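Hey L., structure's done. Input below.
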Amino acid sequence: MNKGRDIESQGELRMKKSMKALIFLFFILTITATGLSEENGLNQTNNETEIDQDLDIVTGPALVFDYESALVIGELKGLEEGEVNVSFKYREMGEEWIETGSQVLNESMDFIEDLEELRPETDYEYKAVLEWNDEELVGEVDSFTTPRGPGFQTSSPSDVISDFAVLRVNLGDWGDVDLYFRYRELEDQKWINTSAKEVSGSGVFEKEIRNLEPGTTYEFKPVLVLNGREVTGTVLNFTTLDPLVNTLSANAVLSDFAILQGNPGRWDEAEMFFRYREVNDDEWMNTELWEVNDTRVFEQNISDLEPSTTYEFKAVVDWGEGEAAGEVLEFTTLETVGEVFPDDLELIIIIVIISVGSVFIYLGR
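Output:
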C-alpha cells in the first residue's frame, strides 16, 4: 500500500512541476510580448465605421537558420477593422535598404518573412513596416549576424577572357557529393546552372563556362548536393575582358595589292575579318571570315587596289552576339609598276645604242 502511495505522490510531484513550468513559460512569453510594445503609434480613422484605431507596428526577433537565410518577425497592434499592408526592410550594415514583399492583414497579429541569399559572417539590420492611408510607420531597427559559411570555399575564377572563364571551388573535407555552379549576370534574377559532377575528397574543383558577354560582370557560387540537400558557397564576382582586337600595320604594299594584319586577342570561339576603304569613302569593304581560337597574328591579302591611293583598314572580330574592332590604320599603294614615261624611254634608247655598238666593236676585233 505504501508503495502505491509513493508512486501516486511522485506523480503528483511531477504534475506540480509541469504546472510550474507551464506557468513560468507563460510568464516569459507575456514579458516578451510586453517588451515588444512601442510607444509610437498611428491614429487613423476607418471611413466606413468611423472608429478611431491606434495602430502600432513592432519589430520582433530574428531567427537565423544558417549562413544565408533568416526569419524575421513583426507584430501588428491596434487594428480593429479594415486592412493594412505590412512588410520588412533589411540591409547589410551601411548599405541601401531592401524591402520585402508586402502582406495584407485584417487583424492584429504576428507576421513573418523569410530573408534568403544572405552573405555569411555579415551584420544585417531590419525593421517592420506598416503602410496605412499613404502613410508609413516603422518599428525599431534590430539586427542579427549570419554565421560562418560551409566548410568549402569559393575561389576566384581563372582564365577569364572576353567570353570564357573557369569557375573554381576549394572543396574542403567532404565525402562523395555532387557539385555544380550557379552563375548569372549581375542584376539578373535567374541563375544558370552548370552540369553536375560527382566529386570525392578535398582539393580544387574547376568548371569551364563559355559564351559569356564581353565586358560584363557575373556572379557565381558553388552548390554541393549531399543526401538530397543543397549547400551553397559564398557568392563571388568576376568581369569578362573587353574585346582586345589589335590592328597591325599592312605588309607587302604594292600598287594594287597589300597584306592586312591583325591580332584577334583572347577569344574562345569567334570569327575575324578586315574592313577597308579608300580614305574619305563612306562604304567599307569586308574581307572573308575565318575562325579564330588563339592569339596568333592573322593575315588577309587584298588586291585590285588603286595605285597611289591611301586606304584605311581595321581588324574586326565577330563573336556571334556582336562585333569588336581594333584601331583604324592607313597605308598608301605604290605608283603603277611597269609604266614607261618619256624621259625614261630616251634614257633606255641611249643605253641600248651604246650596248649594241659595244657588241659590234667587240666582234670586229
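The chain has four domains: 1-35, 36-145, 153-239, 246-332. The chain has two helices and 28 strands.

-- N.
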